[in-house]
């Protein structure tokens, strides 16, 4: 399980909207940063409006880019939405740790994403009810790309149920941090929450081993 | 911690829309059933639309009652929404167990609500981003009526953080069951999930005690 996604620091360094992708190196990095800004803007809007009510113009305005640039990168609005409703790119880094440390890794990874980028690898499943039939696509993607993918990493009986319960723990932490905005969770050091919460995730992944 | 709320069975027995509240006994029960149906309809819509876009007529249609009946019971639309954005009535029964068994009790209570009534005592916090300033009211209520209320039940250091982490676990289970609709969680017996997941909740409530 490797992590081919653009690094967070590259995203942070490049200003969105600056595109020079006829050049190499920095230009490619800028293009990735702009795409990431568009995806973030789209995620923000999909958490608040039915996808049928979201215009390309609204995404462009929020991302600070032009609508034609979105079309250039993503083809059309539906293709952009499909990408946002897909978990594959995020799950790669989320699962990128040895099984015996995966519980703590996922907790830490989620909290870093939430606190540093306001992003969460899996939380957007909670907005499925907003999106009618598209919500069912989101659910199907979530099942195959998150729950089933984690199940494949596990050994022993009831792996499917244990994977769903581990994912439940991580969804709940994302809701508490990013939506309910619990003051204690938001002010505690990431490592402290990782130590307190990671073992509960790990207990679902590798039951019967020492997790404390 | 007692549970004065109308019982689920009374709700299930009475058809919504039938009101005879000039009489006593069954009439009062019917009125409660109708109010519950209106609240359920309102919750359903608030999970899918900004509150500013929800009409009294839409709530009435979904609940199978007339709009004037809603006004009779709740006064006005804002008062109805305030009640739906309040957790107090639900948290009463959710927390109604001795501390040493509270983890399992909350897991069981949540799963019974989800599976038998399609309702969850705390999950509606996830729709806060839909509702602008009303979402902040929902967050404030959640903090005082759910997290802080649970904190008051706990002993020892870091009770506020431990309460938020316990609530995180329960939020995540609600998301997995009711929104992501995880097939394993939905098909496993409630007692099995309670035995697998309850100890993780309990470990936040009473750390250091045996929870397995």
TrEMBL record, chains A, B:
Residues 19-32 have a biased composition (Basic and acidic residues). Residues 32-92 form the HTH tetR-type domain. The keyword Transcription applies. This is TetR family transcriptional regulator. Residues 55-74 bind DNA. SUPFAM superfamilies: Homeodomain-like, Tetracyclin repressor-like, C-terminal domain. Pfam families: TetR_C_16 (PF17920), TetR_N (PF00440). Residues 1-32 are annotated as: Disordered. Residues 1-12 have a biased composition (Polar residues). Keywords: DNA-binding, Transcription, Transcription regulation. InterPro entries: Homeodomain-like_sf, HTH-type_TetR-like_transc_reg, HTH_TetR, Tet_transcr_reg_TetR-rel_C_sf, TetR_C_16.
């Amino acid at each position: 399980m490797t992590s081919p996604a653009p690094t967070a620091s590259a995203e942070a360094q490049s200003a969105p909207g600056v595109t020079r992708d006829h050049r190499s190196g920095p230009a490619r990095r800028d293009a990735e940063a702009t795409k990431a800004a568009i995806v973030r803007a789209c995620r923000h809007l999909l958490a608040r409006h039915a996808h049928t009510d979201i215009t390309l113009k609204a995404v462009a305005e929020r991302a600070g880019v032009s609508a034609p640039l979105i079309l250039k990168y993503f083809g059309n609005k539906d293709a952009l939405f499909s990408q946002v409703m897909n978990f594959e790119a995020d799950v790669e880094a989320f699962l990128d740790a040895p099984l015996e440390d995966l519980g703590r890794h996922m907790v830490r990874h989620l909290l870093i994403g939430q606190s540093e980028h306001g992003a969460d690898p899996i939380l957007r499943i909670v907005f499925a009810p907003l999106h009618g039939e598209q919500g069912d696509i989101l659910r199907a993607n979530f099942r195959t790309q998150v729950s089933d993918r984690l199940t494949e990493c596990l050994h022993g009986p009831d792996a499917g149920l244990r994977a769903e319960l581990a994912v439940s723990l991580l969804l709940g932490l994302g809701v508490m941090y990013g939506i309910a905005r619990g003051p204690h969770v938001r002010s505690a050091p990431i490592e402290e929450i990782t130590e307190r919460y990671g073992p509960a995730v790990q207990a679902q992944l590798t039951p019967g081993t020492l997790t404390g």
